[in-house]
Amino acid sequence: MLFRKRCNADGLDPKDCGGEGDCQWHSLSHELQVKGLGTFSIAQLRGKVADELEAQEPMDGFIVKDEFPSWADYCLRVRDPKYHTWGDNLILIAVCEIFCVQIRLTSISKSHDKVFTTQDGIFKAELHLGHIPEEHYYAMTPSSDPPQKVLNNNL
After folding, report:
1. Which of 8, 11, 102, 119 has minimal Cβ neighbours within 10 Å of its Cβ?
2. pLDDT tens digits for range 126-154
3. Cα angle 42, 46, 49; round to 5
4. What are the start-end ranges of the E strands in the chain?
């Protein structure tokens, strides 16, 4: 409820793209299509991201070792849809580089919002995702209703 109120106040509608365990992937795929950057199945998008991650120096220090014993294992699980590996910041960074985009992430509070961009800071489009931590990702669309001001009920 707090998330939806926040989105409404900013003039945004969260679009649930589905994808139990793959919601970040589904939301990214939707945003890429809407922005005219291509239409990708989840398997295709995972493959592109895994290719980008595998091309990097191993980042073993950034993965949860209990879940992914090595960088190679992490990349394998990102690639294969059967694992439903949850989306994370490394995936968002890779998407920025692959598609030359900036990703704006709106969360439940402004302090949790993030912006991901290319290494050189140059991008051709902005994707906008919503995120409820540890729960779900959404594609964000401009609201057809004007933003609502939050009123102070104590006045």
Report:
1. 119
2. 999 999 988 899 999 888 765 455 444 43
3. 140
4. 12-15, 101-106, 114-116, 125-132, 136-142
